[in-house]
Amino acid sequence: xxxxxxxxxxxxxxxxxxxYALGASSLWSDEGNTWALTERSFAxxxxxxxxxxxxxxxxxxxxLWTQLGGHSAVAMRSFSALAGCLLVWVIYQIxxxxxxxxxxxxxxxxxxxxxxxxxxxxxxxxxLQIYYSQxxxxxxxxxxxxxxxxxxxxxxxxxEQQPPAYPPHGRRWLWPxxxxxxxxxxxxxxxxxxxxxxxxxxxxxxxxxxxxxxGQRRFKLLARYMLINLLIVASYLPWLPIATHRLLNWPKGGxxxxxxxxxxxxxxxxxLGPLRNTTELTWPLLMGLLxxxxxxxxxxxxQRHPRKGLDIQFTALVLxxxxxxxVMFGLGLFTEAFLKFLLxxxxxxxxxxxxxxxxxxxxxxxRTAWFAxxxxxxxxxxxxxxxGYYTDPTARDNYAGAARYVQxxxxxxxxxxxxxxxxQQEVWRYYHVAIPTLALPQQRPADAQQTxxxxxxxATDRHSIFALFWATDEADPQRLVESWLxxxxxxxxxxxQGNMRFVNYTLGAELTCQSFDKPPTWHNQxxxxxxxxxxxxxxxxxxxxxxxxxxxxxxxxxxxxxxxQHAYKVSLQLLNERNQIxxxxxxxxxxxxxxxxxxxxxxxxIDNHGLAIPPGTPPGHYQLxxxxxxxxxxxxxxxxxALDNDDVLVLGQVEVSRMESAIPLAVIPMxxxxxxxxxxVQFVGYDAYKQGFRHAPEQxxxxxxILHVTLYWQAPSxxxxxxxxxxxxxxxxxxxxxxxxxxxxxxxxAQWQSGEFVRGxxxxxxxxxxxxxxxxxxxxxxxxxxxx
Length: 788
Description:
By secondary structure, this protein is an alpha+beta fold. The chain folds into 4 domains: 2-98 and 108-391, no CATH class; 399-506, 2-Layer Sandwich (Translation Initiation Factor IF3); 512-657, Sandwich (Immunoglobulin-like); 670-783. The protein is built from 22 helices and 22 strands. Strand 1, helix 19 and strand 2 (437-440) form a beta-alpha-beta unit. Helix 14 packs antiparallel against helix 15 (310-331).
């Protein structure tokens, strides 16, 4: 029993990492389709799958699974998590064959035990496998079936290599053959890409047959292998016509990708998976050297032990790993949508990485050292990739967060939800949002007039529209929905929630307009003839009050006496008392529909802007300014009638009030989320970037630059009796130190309410001595992430 303890611990670790926080991330669109299909009958699943790009096998199995555990996200994903754990065990079983030592007395020698344990450990921590083990889709099942296929193949070849007198020889090949048929049949019914693995397995057997087999049994063995494959094909005959039609009409997703870019993409995916919080990491890509070293070590071992069959294992693993990769290279499938194709190769990646230890077969000390290095590297990659994945609400498209936001601020009587891509309907239905929903366009290709008419009718008498944009290149390539909304409404909050873009539009506002005695004119002769806003103050000269989290509606009216040669952008900015940007909206006029290069002389251009006041903005009065700049060079255009070459036009004041209702923090854009207790207050997270580079937070900081930091806080609920009236924090960076109130001097903590979410804007000099800021409140401190 003791010899199995390491494997049991690895399997326990794999289960922990795959079942932990299984329901933390939102279901995304494809998982919503999975949920919808499992609610239908087996026959209806087959009918609907015939029109889809996947066969029905996974959906049938999952439907059986949900009969036991229900249809929740956790219940559906647990099927993939279990498959992921079983895959680790199968990888271990295959790993026991990665040695020249054959079992003599049933004991697990180091040569069979260590590579297998290392492969299983790498698989248990593998970010790509963990990610898809927590997704209610068929890809982890596909990887498991591929591993079972190769396990059965190697077992079959091993039995065929035994001499006829090897007891009990007889029919020992039968069970591996049955396993091969079952895995092959299940794989075909799971995904249309499974023939790639069947082809890799067939090429492996053909190599074995050519190199090793001679004599009278040679063609008998080949005929038997062909019969096994014919049984697999026969099991798939009922679906074969549908599969053929779907493959011949497969959506064209390929694109030309430079070879080194494609290689980097492949290595990053196999090392780190599709985890979005690791996009800037490069050192884990060194893990890509392990499979290369493993392949070399296995090949060298095969040269030293030519009759032990290691060349067969080498061939199997290289073809297993290379098959899916070669298909991706051949079809140019190097986009995020096709990442899952590499999952089928992930077991071979782990096995070849583990095989690298065979390079030190005859050197026990080096072998132990290499084992420690490989396991440490795997742990380091997991520690880098997984914590952010488990806590990031946008690890998958965050429909759950968008639904919570709409439920919190939306009104079924006055608001509307627009799904730009009808494929989002099922996942949105899963979250039961009680607000009218319209999915457009209703067909592909889109009928432009029908789409516009449907949107116009649905938007009548509505106040807010919450739009969810996903896969618009396929569903709405003409941008019919977004163009209509940009032209007829005021765009407010816009936030990427994974690959889904969530936008809040406001309609039907009564505006107060102002004209200029002398219209402001820029050096390019563009004039602002007037501007309109929602003035609810008594003097009608300022905007507001606008609650934090809501939108200030602003309309600009432009003219130009000449044709413009450059495409200019408009930047509306809200400044606090320290001239720090609190809110900003940059866009070409009319939401990009009327670039300045399309203006006719003296034509009046109506330019609607919804300036979203960020949630948590402290109440107070803020200055509203307008800036015009070249969209290509980002050079600001100077005002022609301004003094001192000024490039800023002051429009007026905006009064901001406290948030009217709580907003789910998961949908609030934030660079770094912490949710850590810091003294008596919750430190939610922060943004940090070079001053003026909010649009490019990765911009490198040089000594002497100003670091801008936005800090996000949440008051406890309820407020304790000892709640301080003027709580301050200290931030240190190198020799520089900033001590300030949490939000601003004008909004001390004495004014905060129970559970209130508040943000503060701050600047700090970067002296270059350290790139790791620390933040302190009293005796509590946190070390923040390194600056770029």
